[in-house]
């Protein structure tokens, strides 16, 4: 038997189950239209305004720095896996450590630069604060 | 990769090689010097976050680029990667051979000129440290592109060269034109990178490898020709973006016009050469004509692209009123000439290495004359003279020396006899005829004649027209002058100095076909 038949069957079942569930529930459920059901779900908060607002650019900076170090962890992981067995098989400590240290060192230079240029400082916008106080008063 | 192979890779880093006492990885010295210089610039910028010490920043970057150029020249002279065969590193992901060094020499010379010129151009601008470090990071990406030996490294190094370029184009962030150019460049770049990556995945699907030599071997089996052919076509599209060739050329006029002129010089010379470096290697090594299945005839694709690119570039350039935009289109036209290096290849052709080498030599000369022309524009922008041909009227009465240099660039770009551009074009067309593609050479020659029309317009405006208003050129920008003069002297010296260049280029290109 062609092994693709099994995959095709899996796809049919995978598509069939959700469609079947939705069809059954639409047959069984009572219909009670209500405003709250069509509102946007915002983690229990009542949504105000539209979603098309300008976010503070600093969220982006923090997110970017996070991604950099997140990826760094992913790329160091394979190195940690071979570290011990590489040493056991007689590779010198320098040859094992140097590439990782260089890699981290490059990222440290980048972080240092970002820090010194104020990317990790949460700068307050005087205009936004002023607008906020105006709205409250 | 299995564990023992990984250890072999680690120990290879420390093992001495045949050539003297130097370990293998030192063959990458030019790339490493460029990258380290970029990091040093970031450190300088970290110590004094708002530094406007242009002399220090420009000095460090010029020194770094010059050191990388010296390392490249030394490697070329002593035969690193040539005498003992190509040096491969990191499990064949990178290769250092004559061709990668030849192209690295182009990139580093352009960077030297651009950083010297930026010293004046960037005065009064903020974020200078970032500018120089981005230029050097982009340059190290380009040098890596020339050394890439696997499609994965091609993609990574191409992005390393592209991402700083997007930022550099939008460097004048108060200037609408610059920001718009940066955004357009970025969007088209992202699109073509997606096409390119998809092409790589198809090639990988068809061959099961990313290393060029393995791809060539798998393709010669003649399996999955359809998938591989589509992949090859999409990979070619990715290179068309990087080299500003049809069909991904339309970002070039916008980006070159909006960008700061030194960045335009950098992109239109070095970045274009980097695209060609990697395209040459990928198509000659990974998809060799001799063994590739009949269905994947990329030579035909490049013949169409070369003819369309050079014709479109030259005709569009002839209709421009803005000098910088004219140069941008002329740069597209030159991409068409350089594409002859791939378009005039044939399976087992006797002059394959020579035609590819001639194209490389043309890119070398082009690196000087085109960078010089854009840096002259930078100087004119610095003076505050307008951007159209009319604004250049009578400029020679005010700045004769610079105008002589600009005339040299224009005539050399057009390919007139007493300058470097003549020989490089002559050899390119001659070798194309030798390899049996007389019609490509004929179309190229016709286009060169047309290009003389718009190049000479600049010269006529500068020397023969009367000034329409009075000029107030103000201060003499020393750095810009020096950079333009270096480019001019380079363009002139490449006339007597052309034989060694073409000889080196054809030798190193010949080894690709061996």
Automatic annotation (TrEMBL), chain A:
The keyword S-adenosyl-L-methionine is annotated on this UniProt entry: no
Membrane-traversing stretches: 6-28, 59-81, 93-115
GO molecular function annotations of the record: NADH dehydrogenase (ubiquinone) activity
Subcellular locations according to the entry: Membrane
Keyword terms of this UniProt record: Membrane, Transmembrane, Transmembrane helix, Transport
GO cellular component, one term: NADH dehydrogenase complex
PANTHER family on file: NADH-UBIQUINONE OXIDOREDUCTASE CHAIN 3 (PTHR11058)
Protein family: Belongs to the complex I subunit 3 family.
Protein name: NADH dehydrogenase
Species this protein is from: Haloprofundus marisrubri
